[in-house]
Structures are given as C-alpha cells and as structure tokens.
Amino acid sequence: MKRVTGIGGIFFKAKDAPALQAWYKRHLGIDVQAWGGAAFDWTDAEGKPVAGTTAWLIDPQESSHFAPSSAPFMVNYRVEDLHALIKALKEEGCQVLDKIDDSEYGLFGWVMDPEGNKIELWQPPQGQ
User: Which stretches of the chain score pLDDT less than 70?
Assistant: First the structure.
C-alpha cells in the first residue's frame, strides 16, 4: 500500500491573520480568498491543468483547527486509501484521531506525530 503520495496543503497560524494574508497577496501575488487561503491548481509544463490542487491557509492564532496540537502549523498529506492507512497506523500504535470526515472535497483523517503535531491525511475525490 502506498502511504503519502504528496502534499495536499500547508496551514499555519498568524498573530494577525488578515494582515499576513494581505501581505502574501500584495507581495507574493497569492490569490487569498475570503476563507483565508488559496488553492493552487496543478498544471503541466505548458500550463495546462492536471488533476490536483494544493491548499494554503493562514488561520488566526486563536483557531482550534489544529487541536489537539499546540503547533502553529499543520501539513495535509495526500493519500490513496485513507481507510487502509488509518488501519495500518492504528496497528502500528500511532495516535490516530477517531474521526474521518467525508465531504465533497474527499476523505479526511488525522494522526498525531510523536512530537504532538497534528497531521491531516486527505484522500481526494476520484479524478483529483
């Protein structure tokens, strides 16, 4: 079984999220949306879209999005088979959070690394 196949997103907290979002938009040209982040669609060498997106988000410092981790960041990793990976991680003694979200964006599960960082595992919908 393949485990992680790529990075699906990078999420981090900021003391002043709106100001930092504006800085990234102005100085780096990132198309920050009202939800606080941007979606980078994957393209080939000619700029033609291919199946895949990487999310990027700046959360307010007070956000509980990364709980139970106290880290100011979370990485979202793409996986091929979330249920099989969650099962394997549990069998290996990893701290897996007992929740799987199923949404229009795919399946999401979470595991804590040995240093207490929350890791998001994402199985995109078919074709992505």
Answer: 127-128
Q: Which residue has the tokens 């994957």?
A: 42
Give the pTM: 0.88
Digit-coded pLDDT (tens) for 56-68? 999 999 999 999 9
pLDDT tens-digit map of 25-43 = 999 999 999 999 999 998 8
Q: Tell me which residue has tokens 């982040």.
A: 37
Q: Tell me if 116 sits within 8 A of 66, measured CB to CB.
A: no
Q: How far is CA 105 from the centre of its chain?
A: 11
Does domain 4-42+50-123 fall under CATH 3.10.180.10? My reply is: yes
Could you write out the three-class secondary structure of the chain? CCCEEEEEEEEEEECCHHHHHHHHHHHHCCCCCCCCEEEEEEECCCCCEEEEEEEEEEEECCCCCCCCCCCCEEEEEEECCHHHHHHHHHHCCCEECCCCEEECCEEEEEEECCCCCEEEEEECCCCC
